[in-house]
């Protein structure tokens, strides 16, 4: 019998009868006064899958089943880019900087979790772009309101990566592709059921030359004359990264469901080819980072009393990043170079950034009765940021520590019955920062002055759901959420990202209303969802860019932004043969700040009219669609072997890099409309024990752009080999 993604089943009771597990009973023989045996030819036990149970929560949540993605070559960020409301925007090829956006919120406004643990301090190499789908069982994408157990100060939603729970398995993959790309991943676990000893390992290594062609502006280095655009190869964009995550300990004991000691070790080495736009081209700058993160995890159900569960997680992260740009040379996109009168192609630096962070996450959940439960969560994090730039030995901020500490507490209550449930919660946010600010800039009295800030906020929200019909679910959620600025936003990255110690916390009122239809009829399964989103955000933190010959970026507060959006998705499957999916997102995000206040300016101060009032926020895609289809051919060449043909496409309507109402239409820079296609061919052997996948991305070789018109790779081919061994 075919098992859909929403239901799991055993054997049928009879050709004409199906029973739920609670309906399977023995019948009593009244004449003999005892239970008699009944012979049943077949039995079916129908239950909801984990993904389906998650989907039925009151929250606006999408669940991505990664078990169907293990043979694909996509990393996790590319997998998530097919979910409605999500855009993963890249600066280029493998290892390039990327921005994760959900309903217009991006960067640190969206939080990432690994098994419910915040990934804020995992380092730059242990991220979605470097992790293969094989690491996890599924991904939970919360849009807007979060469950209290996911502690943190997310403003626009969160992504929770749930790792695989297999007791004993080995999953090894290797892929090779265009532009000198190689990727290796190894995931496995061993558990001794007698002693409770367990060890779990996830490892990866990625390498790419990234020497794909781009259509870039050419400059004559001797005269400075603009020669127009040409197709050239990127020549200084090599990237490599590696990571190892290990956890070991005891499971299934009276004193602990699990007690695990672990560590994450990861590093990357990256050449920097360009700045924030392709107007800048570099041939020497590099950035390297290394992270070491020891951790302890503990979980116990029925702690002291029945129904009381405790989860604890603590970690200390050590992250060192080195940025080097010291060459006295100037390059153009042809790879030509001449000596320069000044050192540093973009920004003269040889800086090492040291970050040290403690993080503690505690979660208590108490089930009061069959209908009620309460949850308390607290997250504490404290970061020390210090920078040492050898090129500026007299720089006042060298080796001066800057600090950022957060305490975030959440308390939630849930009331649930058969057809409906309601969640209400409150959150308390506390932020302390200690940094230095440049005062009296451009004056003789210019100096750095220590600035300390303490901020506190109270947020709240609710989420509810009601089943109108067994297959039709209504959801609604609302919250007043806050997000405290992060270290990189306040302190900068020492290179392209500039510091801004004056950033204020963001506040957003978020509303989601949605309908979910999910129906299984014989061998057909249809799921459709439509949602309305509303976001009223004050002090919106937006990443801006200086469009100069050596562009830099910085985070700034935008007074007020309002989002009205609509997203819809449709999925259909037939037997275990056909799968078709489609989703679209429209999000109208506009500046709604009527006036602006100018402070600390040598030119003007006071209140003035905001000239961008009513205009769409720049550099944010507002209309995009995804589609995919696949067909499985079973028992090809041998019994148990499956051949899968797959296709997916991605459409993004054009959007401007600056406010659309400013400047002349002919001179405005924008990201053009894009429509890209990908195709794949996968062959599974021996019931999935072995597999080979061939993938072609950007099938029609389109010119694709995301961030500030930084071009992404053209047509590329990749092949992936996989070995999977499992022992139950």
TrEMBL record:
Localization: Cell outer membrane
UniProt keywords (A-Z) are: Cell outer membrane, Membrane, Receptor, Signal, TonB box, Transmembrane, Transmembrane beta strand, Transport
* Highest rank taxon of the organism: Bacteria
Descriptive protein name: TonB-dependent receptor
Q: Which InterPro entries match?
A: Beta-barrel_TonB, Beta-barrel_TonB_sf, Plug_dom, Plug_dom_sf, TonB-dep_rcpt-like
Q: What is its main location?
A: membrane
Please give the family membership noted in the entry: Belongs to the TonB-dependent receptor family.
The TonB-dependent receptor plug domain covers which part of the protein? 56-158
Give membrane topology per the record.
Multi-pass membrane protein
Pfam families for the chain: Plug (PF07715), TonB_dep_Rec_b-barrel (PF00593)
**Domain TonB-dependent receptor-like beta-barrel per the UniProt entry, residue ranges:** 308-699
């Amino acid at each position: 019998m075919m098992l859909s993604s929403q239901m799991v089943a055993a054997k049928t009771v009879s050709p004409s009868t199906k029973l739920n597990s609670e309906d399977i009973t023995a019948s009593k023989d009244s004449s003999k006064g005892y239970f008699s045996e009944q012979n049943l030819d077949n039995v079916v036990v129908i239950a909801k899958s984990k993904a389906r149970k998650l989907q039925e929560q009151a929250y606006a949540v999408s669940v991505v089943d990664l078990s169907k993605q293990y043979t694909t070559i996509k990393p996790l960020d590319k997998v998530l880019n097919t979910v409605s409301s999500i855009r993963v925007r890249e600066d280029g090829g493998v290892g390039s900087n990327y921005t994760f956006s959900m309903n217009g919120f991006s960067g640190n406004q969206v939080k990432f979790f690994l098994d419910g643990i915040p990934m804020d301090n995992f380092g730059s190499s242990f991220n979605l772009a470097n992790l293969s789908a094989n690491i996890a069982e599924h991904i939970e994408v919360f849009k807007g309101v979060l469950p209290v157990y996911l502690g943190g100060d997310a403003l626009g939603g969160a992504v929770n990566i749930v790792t695989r729970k297999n007791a004993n398995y080995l999953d090894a993959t290797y892929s090779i592709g265009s532009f000198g790309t190689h990727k290796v991943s190894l995931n496995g676990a061993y558990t001794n059921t007698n002693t409770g000893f367990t060890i779990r390992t996830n490892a990866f290594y990625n390498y790419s030359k990234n020497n794909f062609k781009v259509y870039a502006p050419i400059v004559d280095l001797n005269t400075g004359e603009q020669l127009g655009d040409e197709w050239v190869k990127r020549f200084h964009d090599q990237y490599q990264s590696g990571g190892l995550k290990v956890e070991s300990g005891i499971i299934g004991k009276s004193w602990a469901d699990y007690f695990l000691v672990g560590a994450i070790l990861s590093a990357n080495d990256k050449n920097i080819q360009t700045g924030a736009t392709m107007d800048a081209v570099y041939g020497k700058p590099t950035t390297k980072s290394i992270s070491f993160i020891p951790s302890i995890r503990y979980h116990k159900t029925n702690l002291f009393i029945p129904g009381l569960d405790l989860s604890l997680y603590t970690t200390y992260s050590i992250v060192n990043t080195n940025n080097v740009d010291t060459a006295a040379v100037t390059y153009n996109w042809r790879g030509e170079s001449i000596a320069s009168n000044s050192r540093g192609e973009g920004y003269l630096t040889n800086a090492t950034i040291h970050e040290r962070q403690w993080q503690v996450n505690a979660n208590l959940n108490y089930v009061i009765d069959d209908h009620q439960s309460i949850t308390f969560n607290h997250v504490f994090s404290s970061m020390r940021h210090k920078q040492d730039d050898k090129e500026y030995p007299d720089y006042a901020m060298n080796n001066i520590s800057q600090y950022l500490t957060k305490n975030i507490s959440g308390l939630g209550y849930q009331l649930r019955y058969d057809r409906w449930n309601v969640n209400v919660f409150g959150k308390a946010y506390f932020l302390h920062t200690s940094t230095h600010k440049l005062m009296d800039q451009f004056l003789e009295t210019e100096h750095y002055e220590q600035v300390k800030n303490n901020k506190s906020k109270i947020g709240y929200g609710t989420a509810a759901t009601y089943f109108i019909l067994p297959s039709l679910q209504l959801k609604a959620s609302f919250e007043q959420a806050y997000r405290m600025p992060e270290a990189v936003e306040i302190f900068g990255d020492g290179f392209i990202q500039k510091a801004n110690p004056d950033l204020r916390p963001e506040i957003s009122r978020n509303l989601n209303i949605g309908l979910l239809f999910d129906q299984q009829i014989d061998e057909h399964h249809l799921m459709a969802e439509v949602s309305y989103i509303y976001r009223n955000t004050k002090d919106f933190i937006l990443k801006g860019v200086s469009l100069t010959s050596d562009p830099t970026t910085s985070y700034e507060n935008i007074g007020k932004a309002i989002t009205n959006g609509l997203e819809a998705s449709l999925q259909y499957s037939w037997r275990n043969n056909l799968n078709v999916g489609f989703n679209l997102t429209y999000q109208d995000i506009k500046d709604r700040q009527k006036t602006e206040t100018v402070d600390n300016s040598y030119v003007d101060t006071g209140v003035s009219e905001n000239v961008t009032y009513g205009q769409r926020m720049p550099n944010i895609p507002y209309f995009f669609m995804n589609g995919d289809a696949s067909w499985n051919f079973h028992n090809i060449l041998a019994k148990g072997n499956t051949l899968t043909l797959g296709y997916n496409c991605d459409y993004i309507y054009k959007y401007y890099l600056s406010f659309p109402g400013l400047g002349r239409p002919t001179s405005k820079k924008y990201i053009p409309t894009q429509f890209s296609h990908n195709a794949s061919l996968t062959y599974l052997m021996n019931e999935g024990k072995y597999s080979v996948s061939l993938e072609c991305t950007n099938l029609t070789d389109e010119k694709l752009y995301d961030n500030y018109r930084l071009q992404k790779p053209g047509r590329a081919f990749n092949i992936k080999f996989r070995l999977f061994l499992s022992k139950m």
